[in-house]
Amino acid sequence: MMDQLSNYDKYPVVKVSGCTDGCWQGWGDIGVEINRYISGYTKPVKKVVIECYPGVLDKELVEALSVALGDEYFFFSSDAMLSQQEINDFFSEDITTDEVFGYLTRHTIDKFFDPKKVSELRKQISAVKEGVISIYGTGAAYICPDADVLIYADMPRWEIQQRFRRNEISNLGIENRNERPSLQYKRSFFVDWRVCDRFKKTIMDRWDYLLDTTLLGSPKMVTGENIRRGLQKALTTPFRVVPFFDPGPWGGQWMKKVIGLDESVPNYAWCFDCVPEENSLLLGFGDMTIEIPSVNLVFAYPRDLLGVPVYGRFGDEFPIRFDFLDTIGEET
Q: CA 168 to CA 173: how far, in whole Å?
């Protein structure tokens, strides 16, 4: 009942007119569309690159895409990565041994990969003379930069954090799903997300499709052109991002009552109401809503969104955060 009384919109959507086509839901329809697209190529070898942001559930995606595209020539970017120990050693100065503090890495995606393994994997791909080749994983577009179809499987950070807490995923290039979520988040903040955002910005203009698998078992796909139209629409109209609510040691009960949140949660301490790095942006295409990290808009149009003076000082980093902090307890 409280949720119905609240006029706070927890799921604001940017409606994108004229883009009802170019959207698919469910692995069946997604697979049909990818195959329709690649059938337009007459050459004997067709390369499908599925570039993944850290945090996607590989099992779900690999099983579905290998059925859709065939698994005879299905390659994994992870096969060309450095060993876990080598990755840990290389990024140790950025991660540090401190529980909280680290250094924002300046490195790029190639530093996760072994040059010899990359060369060998590229030779294996080049050896295929006929058929559909799938290259999957974080850094897939680095392994194969000349994709015929580039699919970007994105993932918002708020959901990545939930998957850390459920021990569902590891950090990039290592197996640490049972590590404390706070340490996984820290490593992502200082290394994984910095590297992958840096790489994302270099290929956004080339996305043929964006894959949204934020909701388990409910995959959605939209053309890259539609995503770019959606970002342009958000840029030129007032918009909100999707707020993210989280409990904490000082959390209170006020947001539950005023905003209409889950009463079974012990408290809510935070509402990230506009933190583009953490929040999502919902783009509405007809009856379908696609969820993407709202920081994608900052990456796509930093100068126009932030203004020249702010962009000149902060670049494509959104310099302000809007939070609600709740410390108010139950009324007596």
A: 15
Tell me the CA distances in angstroms from 48 to 109, 110, 276, one per residue in order.
20, 20, 30
Cα–Cα distance, 26 to 78 (Å, whole number): 26
CA distance 110 to 103: 19
The pLDDT tens digits of the residues spanning 278-300 come to 899 999 999 999 999 999 999 99
Rounded CA-CA distance 24/220 in Å is 6
Mean pLDDT of the chain: 93
Sheet holding 270-274, edge to edge: 244-246, 270-274, 322-325
Token pair of 259 as six digits: 């905003």
pTM: 0.94
Q: Report the distance separating Cα 95 and Cα 186, nearest Å.
A: 8
Inter-residue contact 258 to 54 (CB < 8 Å)? no
User: What HEC string does 153-195 produce?
Assistant: EECCHHHHHHHHHCCCCCCCCCCCCCCCHHHHHHHHHHHHHHH
CA dihedral 136, 224, 64, 290 (to 10 degrees): 130
Tell me the longest C-alpha to C-alpha distance in the chain: 74
